[in-house]
Amino acid sequence: MRSIYTVGLVSLASLWLAAGSALAQTTPRETPLRTRPSVGAANNNATAKRTRSLAQPKPAADNGDEDDYQTVTTFGITTNTNAGLLGGFVFRQSQRLDGDLFGKPQYRYLSLELVNVKSPREYSPQNNFGTSSITPGKENYLFVLRPQYGRELALFRRNADEGISVNAIFAAGPSLGIIKPYYVEVSSGNTTRQIPYAQAYSAAENIVGSGSFFKGLGESTLTVGIHAKAAISFELSAFRNNTTGVEIGFLSEIFPKTIVIIPNLDPTAGGREVGNRNFFTSGYVTLFFGSKK
């Protein structure tokens, strides 16, 4: 009986093992599931990528901070060693050109100035009546209209928001000289009139003051010469599109004949032209202001 139980148990165990082996072979293997990231995780990844890209430094723009304009137009007043405190008025314009000159950015320089040129012997004491000053011996005014063409080189360029730019200027052009008679006011009894100083001096008239500035404009004569100048300008800007500065330079000018401003009245010293000249040199300072674009 015990042997029968033993054989039965062994048989059952064999059947169980066989059934388990067959089931293992027929059951398919489960493949691992790939899970898609949630919408929140995707947004987090995109935000992280943008953060990394923003954190990376961008390449600096070339000349982005330099004061780089194509045209500068200014107006100004000037004084020079051949004039008084107010020597004249100036218009200037600089326009950027392609290419460099001597390795520096270059501009086409145009200028027009009207100045008063005086004789070194001029002085204007107050007359006895105290009404207006006269210039003893003066026979003519000399006004000069100077169109100029040249080049302006940017030696040092300012930052767009601060600093000072330094430019070198070389220009030349014709000189249109306007020789206007100098008028004075003379009295005769209870009446006064205005006549040229040369006439008043020769007639021993009683001079009481200077005449009107516009008197004698129709009697002006013209002469044409040439001039050249070299200068350094210093520019600064209160606002980005505005500019103000100063131009300091030296100018030479020549006319074909001597211009008599104060004639020589001493016959023993020579002719009327003695003490006058046709070649003028002067240092000058121009204060200018204007706009850039």
UniProtKB/TrEMBL annotation:
Keyword Signal part of the UniProt annotation: yes
Composition bias type Low complexity, residue spans: 26-46
Keywords from the named record: Signal
Annotated spans, Disordered: 26-67
Record's signal peptide: 1-24
Protein name: Outer membrane protein beta-barrel domain-containing protein
Species name: Fibrella rubiginis
